Each structure stands twice: as structure tokens, then as C-alpha cells.
Amino acid sequence: EMIAGIRSLSTPLNNAINSERSRLSAAAIELVSSLSAGLGPAFEPLVSLFFPALLGLCARTNTVFTRRAKACIFVVIENTQSPCLLPYLTGSVNNKSASLRLIAAKGVLACLNLFKSLDDTRAHLIKDVIELTARDTRADVRKAGENILEAYKAILPDNVERFV
Length: 164
Prior knowledge:
- Keywords: Cell cycle, Cell division, Microtubule, Mitosis.
- Belongs to the CLASP family.
- Pfam families: CLASP_N.
- The protein is mostly helical.
- The chain has 10 helices and no strands.
- α2 packs across α3 (22-39) and α9 (139-155) crosses α10 (157-163).
- It is globular, with a radius of gyration of 16 Å.
């Protein structure tokens, strides 16, 4: 019942998240963080509603918006601990915004540190991320890619030889 209520408010919340008014955006982002903390893994059905807007904020040049969205993204990752977050993060790794690429790579790393195993589809997504980050122009994104490779080795050591 609560999920349905939140779902009905998703459009106004996303409008507030994407607002140019920083106080309004901050309040909406804080609400999403609180909802994910309160719902925990039950927040998973709402990921598709809010995660793209949060990732979009990370592509902005305003560091205030980027910092808030990044904090919310990592709160959602920590609280939901769901593999459904990986496609959103891996899709952002090849964005033109360097800050979004870095946040997405670090988000993938945070997900890998929470998971005990990966299915083949998600392992393929991680391989793509490792390849993209290895060729990135920014050193901090390449470093995040190295850390992703190390986490990948820990989860799927048999696949690493074939991958490397």
C-alpha cells in the first residue's frame, strides 16, 4: 500500500528532484533517501522511478546538486542491496559527463562489494564496465575500474582468466 502511494507521487517528486531550485531539490532527494532507508529491500520496485533522475543530476555541472544526488545514490545502493541497480549504473558509465561516469563506476563497485554472487547477465554488464573504464580519459575513472576488476575477481575468480 505504501509503495503504491509513493508510486503515485513519483512524478511530482521527480519534478522536484530535477528542479533548478536547490532547496526544493534537496528536500526531494532527502525524501528519497529516507524512503530507501525506511523501506530497505522493499524499495526495489521504486528504483526505476527515482534512480534515473538521480543519475541525471550527477551529470550537471553544479557540484551542490551532484553531491546530494551522489549521496542519495549510495544510500539507495546500501539499503536496497539489489542487483536491479546495476543496469542503471552500467548504462551511465559511458556518459559524456565525467562526474557521472565516476559516480556510476563507484556505484558499480559499491554494488559488487555488497553482492556475494552474480548471474551471467550481470557478470557481462560488469565486464563491459571494466572495459569502458579501462579506456576512460580520466585517471580516477580508470582507478575505479581497477577496483571493480579486483572486486569482480573476488566474486567470480573462474571468469577472470577468460576475461583478462
